[in-house]
Amino acid sequence: MSHSYKNIFENNKKWIETRLGEDADFFNRLAEGQSPEYLYIGCSDSRATAEELMGLKPGEVFVHRNIANVVNTLDMSSTAVIEYAVSHLKVKHIIVCGHYGCGGVKAAMTPQNLGLLNPWLRNIRDVYRLHQTELDAIEDEEARYNRLIELNVQEQAINVIKMACVQERYAEEEYPIVHGWVFDLKTGRLKDLEIDFEKILKDIQKIYNLTETNWNMSLNSNRNLLDTP
Ligand SMILES: [Zn+2]
Fold it and tell me: Which residues does the record give as Zn(2+) binding sites (predicted)?
């Protein structure tokens, strides 16, 4: 299979034919520009795709993937993606999506020196420390691992909410809304962790508010304010 990469170009030809068969104008529209409604932040794991598992087409989702779907304020790659998606593309939903069976989270659960991966995995080790009481109370290792995957999604979603561009646009437009999901490799199902976005905003306001707005006021009264002449 040393030349298997050549299959990719064959696949590409077939893909073009399929697309044009469905819609002769497909590539003309694709080249015109993008206005996706979603930003998807997921794991680089080859099994946890973005578009395919959501049934979305090219142009419908802006994507950022890294090991264990981490959002860190010092990582220019993820923060630049979020800034661009929120301030320029005006996405309506930001999805942080982890997956059960995540190797990055598994490595972070194992205290050992992994070289260059150490600072990256520290983000997840910190999630463990934040939730250590809950996690250590789970006796079954598999269940504890799954819970850390969910809590990592939750904490990375909170890291998105800490960003000024997200707070400012939400205070003005009530978008974007941040979601936390987990993809189950064994069943193919997407699970919505039903993160209470507005509650998190209110809870973290005292420490992380980077806007001039009192969110508690604006969140509840935006619509009324807009309706008032
Ligand atoms: Zn992963």
Answer: 43, 45, 99, 102
Q: Residue 109, exposed/middle/buried by CB under 10 A (0-12, 13-18, 19+)?
A: middle
Distance 48 CA to ligand 1 centre (A): 8
Name the amino acid, one letter, at 145.
Y
What confidence tens digit (pLDDT) does each residue in 172-184 have?
999 999 999 999 9
Paired with 178 in beta bridges are 94
Each domain of the chain, given as residue ranges in start order, spans 33-210
Q: How far is the CA of 153 from the centre of ligand 1 (A)?
A: 11
For 48-59, how does the pLDDT look when each residue is reduced to its tens digit (9 = 90+)?
999 999 999 999
Q: What is the pLDDT of residues 186-202, one digit of tens each?
A: 999 999 999 988 888 88
Active site residue 97: no
Q: Please tell me the CATH superfamily of domain 33-210, with its number.
A: Carbonic anhydrase (3.40.1050.10)
**Catalytic annotation present for 165:** no
Phi-psi region of 194 (alpha: psi -120 to 50; beta: other; left: phi over 0): left
To the query of whether residue 23 is one of the catalytic residues in this protein, the response is: no
> DSSP assignment, residue 76?
H
Tokens representing residue 167 in the block: 């707070």
132 C-alpha to center of ligand 1: Å?
Answer: 21
Which residues line the annotated binding site for Zn(2+)?
Answer: 43, 45, 99, 102
Per-residue DSSP letter, 59: T
What's the whole-model pTM score?
0.90
The sign of the torsion formed by the CA atoms of 159, 162, 164, 166 equals positive
164-173 vs 215-227: helix crossing angle, rounded to 10? 30
Q: What residues does the ion ligand 1 have nearby, CB within 5 Å?
A: 43, 45, 102, 104
